[in-house]
Amino acid sequence: MSSRPARRHNDVSALTQSDTLRTLHVPGTPLVLPNAWDAASARLVEAAGFPVVATSSNAMAAVLGYEDGEQVPVDDALAYVATIADAVRVPVTADFERGFRLSPVELVERFAASGAVGFNLEDSNPSTREMVDASAQADFLAAVRAASDASGVDLVINARTDSFIRRAGSPDEQLAASLDRGTHYLAAGADCVYPIAASDPDVIRALVDGTPGPVNIGFGGGQASLSDLAALGVARVSFGPSLQRHLYNTFASSLLASVASGADPFAA
What domain range is 226 assigned to? Predict the structure, then answer.
């Protein structure tokens, strides 16, 4: 168990925050998550009126100087999540890859100590990018849910399905696998399914119609606006590392270029 002191800023119980996070997954009125990457950006998300702060593993890795794919040491990853949870009063849900090779019991115990109340858990191997057997992943999620129930800490599980992003088979096979995996993961105790990299509106509609629970879709690709995703019945919309990348690219291309050339970076 973490030896961190109790959260200073968050005076709402974890159970209440879990319930809040879970009930915000409404098909057609999606929970929109402009993912934060540190305490400062998390506070900006909160100040803008968003009811939940989400993290991105890719953005976390960039901040900490690592590549994505569970390259960040687990202690650092947990401390990172805790720093963000300490910084805001709203619920925090974290992208926690595949759980950093922790057993379900240790994962729940250590993650709960961070102060966050939800996490993404993906079904491909972060280092090899190979898909994990669907039954094995369902068993893993069921064990995480059982450990959460046994500990009395209600964690909201967003089960990521990676068939699209890993291009596992033909487009039709990717869709079929995502539907099958999502159904099994929800039955195992997940609260939401995240078929990452699904972007075609017809595919999204098929996912929403064929999944017996809330569906999370990543924003981007230019094929669907937030209102389009709402109309398709999506319950959660993530931005992942895209806002961080946009900001950093702007910083690199304009501010740094101006400074390097001797110009005033703040001139109109």
Answer: 14-256
| pLDDT tens figures, 38-84 | 999 999 999 999 999 999 999 999 999 999 999 999 999 999 999 99
Domain CATH number, residue 243: 3.20.20.60
Number of structural domains (the chain) is 1
223 with 200: CB under 8 angstroms?
yes
Q: Would 99 be classed as within a structural domain?
A: yes
Place of tokens 């702007």: 250
Mean pLDDT value of segment 114-140? 97
Q: Tell me the Cα Rg of the chain.
A: 18
Q: Kindly give, in sequence order, each residue whose CB lies less than 8 Å from that of residue 143, ignoring residues fewer than 6 positions away.
A: 104, 105
Retrieve residue 268's tokens.
């109109």
Sheet holding 118-122, edge to edge: 53-54, 92-95, 118-122, 156-161, 192-195
In a domain, 263, yes or no: no
Q: Higher pLDDT residue, 10 or 190?
A: 190
Helix axes 74-87, 39-47, angle to 10 degrees: 30
Integer angstrom CA distances of residue 81 from 49, 61, 69, 111, 156: 20, 12, 16, 9, 15
Strand boundaries in the chain, DSSP class E: 31-33, 53-54, 92-95, 118-122, 156-161, 192-195, 216-218, 236-238
Q: Identify the residue whose tokens are 């993530």.
A: 238
78 falls within a domain: yes
pTM of the model: 0.91
Q: Considering Cα of 192, then 197, then 198, then 199, what sign does the dihedral take?
A: positive
